[in-house]
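for the writeup, i need someone to sanity check this before i put it in the appendix. the sequnce is what the collaborator sent (i think, or maybe the updated version? ugh). structure was predicted straight from it, no edits. if anything looks off just tell me and ill rerun, i have time this weekend
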Amino acid sequence: MKKQDLIFILCFIAFFLPFFLFQPAYEWFKSTTDNHPMLMAFMKFAILATAGESIGLRISKGFYNEKGFGLLPRAIVWGFLGMGISMAMMIFKIGTPAFLAKMGVNILSDNFGIRLLIAFSTSVALNCIFAPVFMTFHKITDMHIIKNGGTIKGFFSRPINMAESFKAINWDVQWGFVFKKTLPFFWFPAHTITFMLPGEFQVLFAALLGVALGVILSIANLKKK
């Protein structure tokens, strides 16, 4: 383990440990999540998902940041994407059980099997309907950040050319790996676990999965090369 890895791990532990060790910190986290869900979604994803991308860079290139990587623009993009993910989770958590109820499922049952069915169905609906759009948009913003030198000024200096960006995506990797493999084999079960958790931890766990996303993105980049 190199020095940079040790520093990264220690910073990660130092950031999260107080929420597990000190009751006031946990109560603050819970109340703030309840009262300001969008703000907390922004913060969770801006920090955790960006950290995941840094881990992905470490896996693919050997370091956590580099010139042109655009750590701050990525954090801003992830913050807003996190708000969208939080909104989608709210919508699918309500809509999917309502659909299952129409199909004859007793969604009020406390039976573990029923709860698992609801969580799995919600995960599948979220990942089949929302995730491909989200992943494609994230890929486009990622390309825009790199194209403009990874700076805040560069990111906001020109609008994203969506038509050009769609053409520039490597669809063999985006479809053949990101959609076709990671959605059913990783995200379906991962988000099933997410929807089995208490409400205040669901967005946090989804943001923690951003670390896994960083690893997936690094694998996708390596496959592209």
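The two ends are 26 Å apart (CA to CA). The chain has a mean pLDDT of 88.
thx in advance!!
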